[in-house]
């Protein structure tokens, strides 16, 4: 016979004690994107249709390059956080872990390629 209360049995179960932290990380990246999206879109839209030299000159300015890099890194992090929630909710078993790892690698790869492209344009290489 067990003398453990129902509350004691339930403590420690549930979201593995990481649900709130994940929720807040996703909200912080969303708030950061509220500021980064317009700061990225305005120089991008202004130079849309211009030649390579005009775009290179715009992104040679450190502020535009830094904002573009911050936007790409934050956007892909936010993407991964959102897709991780979807995978955790709808996929179970071994495939869940495989998909989370694959999405993490894919998001990191896309962010890295984007940052490399911005640096290449900004530095004129």
What's the layout of helices and strands?
Elements: H1 6-10, H2 19-46, H3 52-60, H4 62-90, H5 94-123
Name the shape in a single word: elongated
- Which fold does the CATH topology refer to? 3 helical TM bundles of succinate and fumarate reductases
Average pLDDT across residues? 88
Number of individual domains: 1
Q: Tally of extended strands? A: 0
The CATH homologous superfamily is called: Fumarate reductase/succinate dehydrogenase, transmembrane subunit
Function: Membrane-anchoring subunit of succinate dehydrogenase (SDH).
GO molecular function: heme binding; metal ion binding
Pfam family, one: Sdh_cyt
Cofactor: heme
Q: What does this molecule look like?
A:
- This protein has 5 helices and no strands.
- It has helices at residues 6-10, 19-46, 52-60, 62-90, 94-123.
- Helix 2 packs across helix 4 (62-90), helix 3 crosses helix 5 and helix 4 runs antiparallel to helix 5 (94-123).
- The radius of gyration is 21 Å and the shape is elongated.
- It starts with 5 loop residues before the first helix and ends with a helix.
- The mean pLDDT is 88.
- Keywords: Electron transport, Heme, Iron, Membrane, Metal-binding, Transmembrane, Transmembrane helix, Transport, Tricarboxylic acid cycle.
- InterPro entries: SQR/QFR_C/D, Succ_DH_anchor, SuccDH_FuR_B_TM-su.
């Amino acid at each position: 016979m067990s003398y453990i209360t129902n509350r004691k049995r339930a403590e420690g179960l549930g979201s593995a004690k990481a649900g709130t932290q994940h929720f807040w990380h996703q909200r912080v990246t969303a708030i950061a994107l509220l500021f980064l999206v317009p700061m990225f879109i305005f120089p991008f839209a202004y130079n849309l249709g211009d030649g390579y030299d005009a775009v290179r000159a715009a992104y040679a300015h450190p502020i535009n390059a830094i904002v573009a890099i911050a936007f790409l890194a934050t956007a892909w992090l936010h993407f991964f956080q959102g897709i991780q929630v979807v995978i955790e909710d709808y996929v179970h078993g071994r495939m869940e872990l495989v998909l989370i790892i694959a999405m993490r690698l894919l998001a990191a790869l896309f962010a890295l390629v984007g940052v490399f492209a911005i640096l290449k344009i900004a530095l004129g290489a």
